[in-house]
Amino acid sequence: MAGRSTEGAHVCAKNYAVSNEPGETITDPVISLRSASVARGGRTIWSDGTFDIPRGQIVAVIGPNGSGKTTMLQVLLGLIPPSVGTVTVFGQTPERGNPRIGYVPQHYSEAVGQAVRCKDLVSLSVTGTRWGMRRSASDADEVEAALQAVGAADYADSRMSVLSGGQQQRVAIAQALVGSPELLLLDEPLANLDLRNQREIVDLLAELQRSRAITILVVVHDMNPLLAHLGGSVYLLDGHAHYGSVGEVVDSDLLSHLYGTQIKVVRTAQGDLYTRSN
Amino acid sequence: MLHAFMIKPGLLLANAGYQSNWVEVLSQPFMRNAFIAGSLVAIASGMLGYFVVVREGEFAAHALGHIGFPGATGAVLLGLSPTLGLAVFCVGGALVIGALGKRASERATATGTVLAFATGLGILFASLATESSTTVTNVLFGNLLAVSTGQIKVFALFTIALALVLAAIARPLMFASVNPDVAEAKGVAVKALGIVFLVLMGLVVTMAVQVVGTLLLFALVVTPPATALKLTARPIRVVLLGTAIGLAAVILGLITATILNLPPSFFIVSYSFLTWLIVLGATREQHRSDH
User: Fold this and answer.
1) A9, B22, B146, B174: most buried, per Cβ within 10 A?
2) What domain range includes position B71?
3) Is residue B267 part of a domain?
4) What is the pLDDT of residues B239-259, one digit of tens each?
């Protein structure tokens, strides 16, 4: 840390943990952590997570590389249990196969079968958990509705391999929307997208959040594209998991400490908020 | 006679060429067995091959053939049936690849090194066993003309069982194949399905080795479904078209081999290769005109 300025040292001394005082406990939170830690292969990824996330907003998940953002989603999906403490989603211990949760993994487009048609891919979320070959008329309707909701109906019959990154991401979101989940978990959906496509995906998420009154957690390495629609942020700071509202998190000192580089929060004359790294 | 090419290279040229009694040869019982066995392998490969291609498991299929080689020659050395040795090594190899997981099995250098060693072991076992050269040739290049009626019954039962199992697990297997992370989160048993799939692949490879041999099985297990996938993306159509290409290659290959008195494996592989080449050319052309 030799390169750190004295200002940085001062920043470190401050306590950024936004604790939930008993009086401000949220009723009926979508996600709730109590002293939760998670470990992998004996190594603690993050610890001391105690927070409630209120329903019906877009929440960013931020933190430096390797701080456990993807692990956070895996815990919420029930893929990894917390090593210490409790985690609840919709008031219950997370379990794989929860139809109330939709999920878009990281590197979706690289990992997915490129020769497969978009609608076959989306339909796997409907039929892929069933044995046998039976199919009902409502299956196709559900797939079509999901593709339409993300504006991907035009390329439903195309193979994934011929689509652009933005189009592939729409298909991924359509797949996550099958079954009308109340919570969407998206891991780096904006990575590898140009600015226009980033904006379009963010607008889509904002529209889905509003029209369906759902909660959307988005892992991002840059909060800026989301800032206009953000309700709060889960942030992984110094090995600890926290949650803060957008007013608490979009803070120059906190973000500078989080990313280990000077970050300024700027408000434009039009009232737009953005962060800038010096 | 048709069997001649299997024995000594010197005799091959002497016997090659137009066989005027080919219609008569085609109606022999061993020929009927060859047609039935080859067709069953083409059908099994067409069904399984779709999943091999969408899972990008082509290298595993290739690897299993090579792992089977020491199994077959080792069984001969111990006085057992080469088919049994082949099946044990292919299924055992499938379980090992499955246990290593997707990432480990993709390590090309490690897999290639193990394959080379397996082939070396196969040669060692073969040279230790007496009367080995026919077995070695049959395992490496296949001998469709030596398939017995008993083997055909096993092939038929296995093909029916494969169809039933695949129909039952098709959707979760597809989900786990093209979208493993989401499938896992949705509660699909991704790893268990992967192992089941590899075991099925090991059994199909055991069958295919007897038709085209370990060195050429790619042309029957992978090439026809891969060719079909270039022409259509609809899963059912890929399976049907892939099976049709495989069937055509086997049947036309056997007829051509009989007419010219040359090894059927060569013609089966050639028809599969030609179809792939033509489709590749045609779809390339189409892509160019699209843009």
Assistant:
1) B174
2) 27-215
3) no
4) 999 999 999 999 999 999 999
CA distance A111 to chain B (A): 7
Taking an 8 Å cut-off on Cβ atoms, the answer to whether B186 and A132 are in contact is no
* B32 contacts B147 by C-beta, under 8 angstroms: no
CB-based contact, A269 to chain B, within 8 Å: no
Quick one: which H or E segment has residue A33?
Answer: strand A31-40
ipTM, 2 dp:
0.88
CA geometry: angle at B144 spanning B138 and B145, to 5°? 100
How many domains, in total, are found in chain B? 1
Which SS3 state, helix, strand or coil, does residue B211 take? Answer: helix
Could you tell me the pLDDT band of residue A108, with boundaries at 50, 70 and 90? confident
d(CA B140, CA A19): 69
B interface with A, Cβ–Cβ below 8 Å: 53-55, 167-172, 174-175, 177-188, 229, 233-235
Q: Is B36 exposed, middle or buried (0-12, 13-18, 19+ CB in 10 A)?
A: middle
CB B51 within 8 A of CB B61: no
Provide the 10 A C-beta neighbour count for residue B42. Answer: 29
- Per-residue pLDDT band for A127 (boundaries 50, 70, 90) equals very high
Q: Which residue has the tokens 């959307």?
A: A216
Residue B54 in contact with residue B232, Cβ under 8 Å? no
Q: Is residue B10 part of a domain?
A: no
User: Please, which pLDDT band fits residue A28 given cuts at 50, 70 and 90?
Assistant: confident
Q: Is the Cβ of A130 closer than 8 Å to some Cβ of chain B?
A: yes
- Separation between Cα atoms, residue A188 and residue A267, nearest integer Å: 25
**Nearest alpha-carbon partner for B218 in B273, B159, B154, B291:** B273
B265, part of any domain: no
Q: Report the residue of A116, A163, A168 to disrupt the B interface, i.e. the one with the largest count of B CBs within 10 Å.
A: A116
Beta carbons of B187 and A179 less than 8 angstroms apart: no
Q: CA nearest A186: which of A169, A203, A168, A198?
A: A169
List the pLDDT tens digit at each of the 291 positions of chain B: 444 444 444 444 456 788 888 888 899 999 999 999 999 999 999 999 999 999 888 888 888 888 999 999 999 889 898 889 999 999 998 888 887 766 655 667 777 788 888 889 988 988 888 766 777 888 888 888 888 999 999 999 999 999 999 999 999 999 999 999 999 999 999 999 999 999 999 999 999 998 888 888 899 999 999 999 999 999 999 999 999 999 999 999 999 999 999 989 999 999 999 999 999 999 886 655 544
Count Cβ atoms below 10 Å from residue B79 Cβ, excluding itself. 7
Give Cα separations from B189 to A121, B172, B177, B184, B278 (angstroms).
18, 8, 11, 7, 39
CATH number of the domain residue B156 falls in: 1.10.3470.10
Classify residue B185: in a domain, yes or no: yes
Are the CB atoms for A247 and A272 separated by under 8 Å? no
Nearest to B230 by CA among B166, B277, B171, B290: B277
B188: closest chain A residue by CA: A129
Look at A130 and B171 and tell me if their CB atoms are within 8 Å.
Answer: yes
